[in-house]
Amino acid sequence: MSKQDEVILSGIRPTGRLHYGNYFGAIQKFIVLQEQGLRCYYFIADYHALTTASERVDYFRYTLDMLRTYVACGLDPSKSIIYRQSDVPCTAELALLLGMVTHVGFLERGTTYKDTVAKLPGGTTRGPEGNPIPYGLLGYPVLMAADILIVRADTVPVGDDQRQHVEMAIDIAEKFNRRFDTVALKIPKPVVRNAVRLPGLDGAAKMGKSDNNDLGLLDDEKIVLKKIKAVQTTTDPTPIEGASDDPDDVIPQMPPSVGALYRLLSLLAPEEVYLDFTRKYRRGEKFYGVLKTTLADYVNAFNAPIIEAFNAPGNNDESIKEFLTENAKKVTPVALETVEACREAIGIGRSLHRA
Ligand code: TYM
User: Fold this and answer.
1) DSSP for 294-322?
2) Distance 161 CA to ligand 1 centre (A)
3) Does 187 lie in the same domain as 125?
4) pTM above the 0.90 mark?
5) Does the residue 73 lie in any domain?
6) For residue range 50-100, what is the model confidence (pLDDT) as tens digits?
7) Are residues 137 and 262 in the same domain?
């Protein structure tokens, strides 16, 4: 397969506004791959957002805003096929077929499911019907497998937190092909080893919108400064005996929240600025105030063009709806081809009403 034939697919749930974890875990790679002229499918996973919904939410509004942010970050609907998951409803049909080869025990090992179970006060035996977790959440990896497999993706650029989901998609596809003695499903590659996991501003292992520890791509200067100033830096660093200025010297173990600030600085600031702050840390200087304002300046400089492009007159609901309509039409043929091949492989035969 030549590089140009490589198919890329990735999605993001419409949870509101995109944060730095989304950017450095996913969007940055989306843009690099798009610029390599590969066939890139990027979508908003609105079906997936429903797995945690307990009431009506205006997901369409979130979808449009997130797509405006996609465009503001540099995703180009004339180069990448940017669409909404629910505009390709045969994904749900493929998920149903894949569900027939996926064991409940396999899904119960999914980390998203396990984390949700861990947070349940009464465990899975709570409530009149026992396990109160929605079927849709347990089946989350099956739907994600359908997203990936339906366009015959080779590569799935995601943050490290989604690694297990991609592995599950690979397992499901291999099992389907084996069971029905078919090659209807193309097996994607596993997630690259160096996938990013950006910590939260509270020092938690992962930045996430629902964890309230995120830094947003559309956060204005005031919010950025407020969020960064609120990061816990109560303990001063302990000076290291004989600390040198050698940039390769080990940086001592930092409290997680300080580590989060350094991580962001390493992504946004020139190397010499980052190294200067690591030297300060080794020497045990009191510098957290300057670190925070410096980092806030870099964050604001990063956000400013995104905010401007987000608000640009051409980047509006109407133009988004237009490309969503056009792009859904571009995904549908390959998606239908995959679903039809899977129907044949299983034995129910091709649909009688689709062209
Ligand atoms: P979601 O919406 O939680 O996150 C979207 C993308 O952002 C990445 N990400 C991070 N990367 C690094 N550090 C972080 N703190 C961080 N937080 C989020 C995620 O890894 C992801 O790449 N299940 C997916 C959406 C999805 C999907 C798919 C992805 C549905 N179907 C098919 C790929 C292929 C999700 O919930 O991502």
Assistant:
1) HHHHHHHHHHHHHHHHHT-TTSSHHHHHH
2) 7
3) yes
4) yes
5) yes
6) 988 889 999 999 999 999 999 999 999 999 999 999 999 999 999 999 999
7) no
